[in-house]
Amino acid sequence: MEMEYEVRLTDKKYLGKGNALLTFACEDIAKRAQPGQFVNISCSCFLKRPFGVCSVDPAAGTFSIGVREVGAGTAEILQAVTGDTFFVLGPLGHGFSFEGADRIITVGGGTGIYPLYFALQKARLSGIPTISVNGFRSREDAFFIEECQNAADLALFSTDAGDYGIKGNVLDTLKLLTDRQIEGSAVFAVGPEIMMRKVSEWAAQKSLPLQVSLEKRMACGIGICLVCVCKVKSTEAGVPFHHVRCCKEGPVMNASEVIW
Q: Helix, strand or coil for residue 50?
């Protein structure tokens, strides 16, 4: 059941180039949120803005989100100061499944690193080894590096510009992993659609299960408005596809079911 809470901003940490980590006090979300789920946060604009949960601290009763400025709504949220309050709906959506994974490989593009950090934290608490692969345009665009290095057993970074880490994109990095490193792994990917599609092709070639978090424009966030529908393969004879709601059946889905 979706719940709306009035939450207080308890901390804001700038991460460089329009990114910040915002921490809010809300015991229920801190206890209930799972990696891959998201929250809808209010601003003065008509619609709430969706953000993947980046981390939780049940003992402190707080949860964190990563915010990048992309428009008026996110700019306003980033201008908030400690003590400001927001109305938040969450936790929402369907998160990652860790069942049966001997190892987890997370693949993030840009801000996709935020929800995957939560997955890395849960994997560590569950005793599951992890490899974190993240791609950025350049060193200037890179962030959350130390956090991923601390959370993952192996953290690899790439930049299109080649000025930090591996030169190229996340697919170039994945191709460097050995069969022994990826054997028995489940792959989680969050990022631009073209990146997730390419990772989907790589995972299929390696016979690895892949879960992707689909990012679509949302309005209500609770499955009523149908703005965020996407196409998935149908198992019904004569029906090539059907639509599902990213906010309700997703945002995390099995990549093998997605029609890109």
A: strand
In angstroms, the CA 15 to CA 21 distance is 7
Residue 98 inside a domain? The answer is no
Cα-Cα-Cα-Cα dihedral sign, residues 218, 33, 36, 94: negative
Give CA–CA dist 229/236, Å, rounded: 19
Q: How many CB atoms lie within 10 A of CB 194?
A: 11
CA 205 to the chain's CA centroid:
23
Q: Is residue 245 part of a domain?
A: yes
- Domain end, chosen from 176, 198, 213, is at 213
CATH of the domain at 235: 2.10.240
Between CA 50 and CA 247 the distance in angstroms is 10
By residue range, what is the domain housing residue 236?
A: 216-260
> Could you tell me which residues come within 8 angstroms of residue 113 by beta carbon, excluding any fewer than 6 positions away?
66, 134, 143, 144, 148, 190
Selection from 98, 115, 83 nearest residue 251 by Cα: 115
- What would the pLDDT profile of 157-182 be if each residue is shown by its tens digit? 999 999 999 999 999 999 999 999 99
The whole-angstrom separation of Cα 34 and Cα 129 is 18
pTM above 0.85, yes or no: yes
The answer on pLDDT for 113 being more than 70 is yes
pLDDT of residue 1: 64
| Terminal-residue alpha carbon distance, the chain | 30
Structure tokens at 107: 């693949």
